[in-house]
Write a structure and sequence with these properties.
There is one protein chain. By secondary structure, the chain is mainly beta. The protein has one domain: outer membrane lipoprotein receptor (LolB), chain A, CATH 2.50.20. The chain is 10% helix and 45% strand.
Length: 231
């Protein structure tokens, strides 16, 4: 079944990953020693684009009740800002949102995007191939070997785990609350750290959101108004 005018937007379902739980095995089951955030920065380089870039993509979404797809554009302004514009097939629905750091600054239509946990936003960044630094007060653990690197951010009941491997380069992320899985991402990376394709799974809803990036504009110019409102 494709888009219903009254249904919550599919892109919003990806960005707002709260209140979804499951019990699959952890992405990073092994014990990890404390590690400095600077070490994680070194492990993840190159970490996303180094200059402003616009990425055009195709997307699909499915869960227990619906499925659909469409197209969109992701604009990234390093180190911490992104805007996503999306449309469903036949432009039945469309929307836009701006994220700065780990905060959803605005979204249109607003009702599609309830308040978002910073851990959920952090996982969205990871799904786009970008590892955000931990917030102040977050405990960091990790290790690196010949196959890649694994690390965790832990604060209160929330754990965000990461696994980075090479050949081909892949970044995976997982958010758990109280040990229960909220969402998991898997992203194939191209040269320079840009994403080629990504998948976000929310087991409780049997939901899967997939993006395939089809074009890169590395000469994109972003007007200041782009970050303030949809139009």
């Amino acid at each position: 079944m494709l888009d219903r005018p009254g249904a919550r937007s599919y892109i919003a379902a990806c960005i707002v990953l709260t209140a979804c739980r499951g019990h699959p095995a952890p992405l990073v089951p092994e014990p990890l020693a404390p590690v400095a955030p600077d070490s994680i920065v070194a492990w993840t380089a190159p970490n996303g684009p180094t200059r402003r870039v616009a990425l055009r993509f195709k997307w699909t979404y499915r869960d227990d009740q619906r499925s659909g797809g469409g197209r969109g554009t992701l604009r990234i302004a390093p180190p911490d800002s992104m805007r996503v514009d999306w449309a469903s097939a036949l432009n039945i629905r469309s929307g836009a949102a701006v994220v700065i750091g780990d905060s959803l600054r605005w979204a249109d239509p607003k009702e599609d995007y309830p308040s978002s946990n910073s851990r959920a936003i952090q996982l969205v960044w990871t799904a786009l191939g970008i590892v955000r630094p931990p917030d102040p007060g977050v405990a960091t653990f990790g290790m690196r070997d010949s196959t890649g690197a694994v690390w965790r951010y832990i604060q209160d009941r929330d754990t965000v785990a990461f696994r980075l491997t090479g050949a081909p380069r892949m970044l995976q992320g997982e958010w758990r609350r109280g040990g229960k899985l909220m969402a998991r991402s898997r992203t194939q990376l191209a040269a320079g750290g840009l994403p080629q394709g990504t998948r976000v799974d929310v087991p409780e809803r049997s939901a899967r959101f997939e993006i395939t990036f089809v074009a890169v504009d590395s000469t994109a110019q972003f007007a200041p108004a782009l970050w303030r409102s949809r139009r």
